Amino acid sequence: MTKTFDVMQDNYIEPDVVPELRELFLNKLELGQYDSLTSLDDFAHVLGQDLRAVTGDNHLSLYTVNPDEEITHILTHKEGKLTNNYGFEEVRYLSGNIGYLKFNKFSPDKQTRDAVDASFNFLEQSDGIIIDLRDTVGGSPDLVQYMLSYFLPDETPLWYVLDSVNEKTAEISASDTAAHQGFRGDFPVWILTSRNTASASEIFAGVLQANSKAVLVGETTASAGFYVGVRRITDTLAFRISLFKPIITA
After folding, report:
1. Would you say 182 and 124 are in contact if contact means Cβ atoms under 8 Å apart?
2. Residues 102 and 207 grouped into a single domain
3. In terms of Cα–Cα distance, which of 215, 237, 239, 216 is closest to 228?
4. How far apart are alpha carbons 163 and 70 in whole angstroms?
5. Taking the model in full, what pTM does it have?
6. Distance from C-alpha of 121 to C-alpha of 99, rounded to nearest angstrom
7. Domain that residue 21 falls in
């Protein structure tokens, strides 16, 4: 348990909260609240669950690994809506020549850009677009940048990145890599959100809102808009943890 919070203190995006968390969870340990756990897998699952509940940071999780295994923060998913067509589920036109796009993840796979381009090429003649992020769990900031570049002029500042001591580590701007500029005109964009809209999805929606390019419609999002990485706790235990904080440039 102590090693978990040592790693968290050294890496977490909000290190000031870690001493209180350490005390809370060590007290829980001393009171026997984890005595029923009989395996490292059980410990990882329950401690991760408890950390998410206490902090409200849904990125935090622990998982077991082999000593020689290369660890990654990228989550794997069963075949389904998060994997089929790289997470892009539906693209169509609604009445009034309004385009509708639903996708469920900003997939880190480089081929995802083909799905993005195909979707936006199809919607190029729309008079407005609805982007449905209600089931979009997050994913790659690189794909967020690519997709935002459809809507905003080249070199528009999008966000910058702070580390755990609030030092700026990167500045992200719109690029000229998007296939065309058909969505940079002055027409309405609506983004549908829910409590499941998380992480990279929140960056995407927040940047368009901050640039007066989109109206957000729906529920408050998950408040999990951090960059995530992974750190070893021991040879057999890894910590998926929020490492950097993106700050949207308005």
Report:
1. yes
2. yes
3. 239
4. 24
5. 0.87
6. 11
7. 2-74+225-245
Start-to-end CA span in the chain (Å): 41
Checking if the pLDDT of 67 tops 80, the result is yes
Residues 98, 196, single domain; the answer is: yes
How does the average pLDDT of the chain come out, rounded? Answer: 92
**Amino acid sitting at position 178:** A
119 and 92 within one domain: yes
| Cβ-based neighbours of 204, under 8 Å, separated by 6 or more | 106, 133, 144, 147, 148
> Per the structure, how many domains does the chain have?
2
Whole-angstrom distance, CA of residue 234 vs CA of residue 190: 45
Structure tokens at 149: 């570049």
204 contacts 228 by C-beta, under 8 angstroms: no
Length in residues, the chain:
250
Residues 103, 200: one domain? yes
pLDDT tens, 202-242? Answer: 999 999 999 999 999 999 998 888 899 999 999 999 999 99
* Token pair belonging to 110: 């480089």
